[in-house]
Design goal:
With 292 residues, this protein is of the alpha/beta class. The protein folds into two domains: 54 residues, no CATH class; 189 residues, 2-Layer Sandwich (Nucleotidyltransferase, domain 5). The strands form three sheets. A five-stranded mixed sheet has the order 5-4-3-6-7, with helices on both faces. Strands 1-2 form a two-stranded antiparallel ribbon. β4 and β5 form a beta hairpin. α2 packs across α8 and α2 packs across α10. The longest helix has 25 residues. The C terminus is likely disordered. The structure holds zinc ion. The site of zinc ion has 8 residues, from β2 and α2.
Length: 292
């Protein structure tokens, strides 16, 4: 002991305890009690404590898992409410699905089937269309649409006026599983067949506009809640997985009408949920966090 050392006074000790408690509180998750052993010094730490602020004031301190959990519950609630309103208020909308010859990145990618249903699952439009290329085997394997099946189908040029008419009349919001795929597939196919020329056909600006489209897949991803660190967003799930998770029986998979109806059922199932949120350890991203 240093000769100059004097024992701390009671007041000093009390201040020390108070400071230490404040420090621990600052670096402890208020939900699960997990502490950051580095006390905030290691910013990359898995145990880092995040401040949730409102109007400049810290209202919560959470570890990353708990922060993601509460963010998920929040988005889950929002999606459920949004979809509940959509069905409860009987807001008219269309749900669209397309089948194609392959991936959008492929130069020859084009639509071979299109289906549009309304909010009551009534079929508004459905047609196959004959591609100007041989059906790639990889695509036929997925959707069962072969050259033989498509042989007597009308061309995209023939079906386009009717599709345009439906999509532009009343301008209802469009929903689709992976909406960006269907939007791009429509644009790409119309371009391929020279239908983007205004004097030939009125190109529906509404279809071009992203704001008109609502992606059921992204809504489901936010509701389902598997967080991806790599994407820094919720991971997209397949329609098949969404259906099995929500116990929705399906048939006619990977055909436009079947997928459109399945998508509608997923949206309905989410709309019918009302709270009853799973505990944090059942959040899908937890598996991801500890697994990868
Ligand atoms: Zn926590």
């Amino acid at each position: 002991m240093s000769p100059h050392h004097r024992p701390a006074t009671e007041k000093q000790l009390a201040a020390l305890v108070k400071a230490r408690t404040a420090l621990v509180k600052k670096h402890t998750c208020e939900r699960c009690g997990e502490e950051d052993p580095s006390c905030g010094l290691d910013k990359q730490s898995d145990w880092r404590i995040y401040n949730v602020q409102r109007e400049g004031e810290i209202i919560h301190r959470y570890c990353i898992s708990c922060r993601l959990y509460f963010r998920w519950i929040d988005s889950r609630q929002k999606i459920e409410q949004q979809l509940h309103t959509l069905f409860a208020e009987q807001i008219p909308f269309y749900l669209l699905d397309t089948e194609t010859t392959g991936k959008l990145e492929s130069r020859t990618c084009q639509i071979v089937e299109i289906a549009i249903i309304d909010q009551d699952a009534q079929v508004v439009y459905q047609s196959l269309c004959k591609p100007d290329i041989t059906m790639p085997a990889s695509a036929s394997e997925v959707n069962g649409l072969t050259d033989e099946v498509l042989a007597d189908a009308p061309t995209f040029t023939q079906i386009w006026p009717e599709v345009v008419k439906i999509l532009t009349a009343n301008e209802p919001p469009l929903y689709a599983w992976n909406a960006e795929f269907d939007r791009q597939a429509l644009l790409k196919t119309a371009t391929r067949f020279g239908l983007m020329v205004p004097e030939m056909l009125q190109w529906p600006e509404e279809v071009k506009q992203k704001s008109r489209w609502h992606c059921a897949m992204k809504m489901h991803a936010r509701w389902y809640g598997e967080w991806s660190n790599g994407k820094d967003n919720y991971r997209w799930q397949s329609l098949g997985w969404a259906c099995s998770d929500l116990e929705i029986e399906g048939s006619n998979w990977h055909r436009a009408i079947g997928d459109a109806q399945q998508t509608l059922r997923v949206l309905q199932a989410i709309a019918d949920r009302n709270g009853g949120y799973p505990p944090p350890d059942e959040m899908p991203s937890h598996q991801y966090y500890y697994g990868e």
